[in-house]
Specification:
Layout (H helix, E strand, L loop, with lengths): L1 E4 L3 H11 L5 H19 L5 E7 L4 E7 L4 E6 L3 H10 L7 E6 L6 E7 L7 E5 L2 E2 L3 H12 L4 E5 L2 E2 L1 H7 L5 E5 L1 E2 L2 E2 L5 E2 L5 H6 L4
Parallel strand pairs: 1-11, 4-5, 4-7, 7-9, 8-10, 9-11, 10-12
Antiparallel strand pairs: 2-3, 5-6, 13-14
The structure holds uracil.
Length: about 210
């Protein structure tokens, strides 16, 4: 596993905006979306291109086109907050959905839904904004590598040291995060964190 802590001042500013408890769901969604564009740039840095002729209004020249179209997998619900930006930058990518919730008593992942196309030999970008215990992420990664994905980039916003440690066993995995926070608390929330990312996106519970 390769770990990238995304050192970008604008990204850090946006995470601070996301942390603020006063941020309404509308503001939270807007900041998450803007941050996701920055993360999408970082997550797509190593994609391959091929030369392609292009006619400008003045002459023919050689450009480049993407030959990699990674499958994008937002983990429901929270991953939806990052999806639009990734789809905007990768308009030819397929989007697959995996719905997992965390059993609040055990913190173990519970699968509710999955709709994933053939990923054999493909690159996959997983959107999982809060890397807490790493249980959900590990379960998704096991599934994708069993389906023979060639490599996975896991995009998070905030990560706990415990979650990062949990994913170290995976090969062909890059984890991107903006902030590595202090710890998990007794309820497996990331501290200082920003609360429940899904609730912050879609309801007024926090
Ligand atoms: N998921 C969240 O949304 N927040 C946390 O702090 C941990 C897991």
């Amino acid at each position: 596993m390769e770990m990238i802590e995304f050192e970008h001042p604008v990204a850090r500013d946006f995470v601070t905006r996301l942390r603020r408890k006063e941020a309404s769901p509308a503001r939270f969604r807007a900041y998450a979306n803007r941050l996701a564009y920055l993360l999408a740039v970082e997550a797509t840095r190593d994609l391959s291109t091929a030369p392609a002729e292009v006619e400008t209004p003045l002459e023919t020249t050689l450009g480049e086109v993407l030959v990699d179209h990674p499958v994008i997998v937002p983990i429901l619900r929270a991953g939806l907050g990052l999806l639009e930006a990734f789809q905007d930058l990768l308009p030819d990518s397929q989007v697959a959905f995996i719905g997992i919730s965390r059993d609040e008593a055990t913190a173990k992942p519970v699968w509710h839904y999955s709709s994933v196309p053939d990923v054999v030999g493909k690159k996959v970008i997983v959107l999982d904004p809060m890397l807490a215990t790493g249980g959900t992420a590990a379960s998704v990664l096991e599934y994708l590598f069993e389906k023979k994905a060639s490599e996975v980039v896991l995009v998070s916003v905030v990560a706990a040291p415990e979650g990062i440690a949990r994913l170290e066993v995976f090969e062909n995995l890059t984890v991107i995060t903006v902030c590595v926070d202090r710890e998990l608390d007794a309820s497996w929330y990331i501290r200082p964190g920003l609360g429940d990312f899904g609730d912050r996106l879609y309801s007024n519970n926090t």
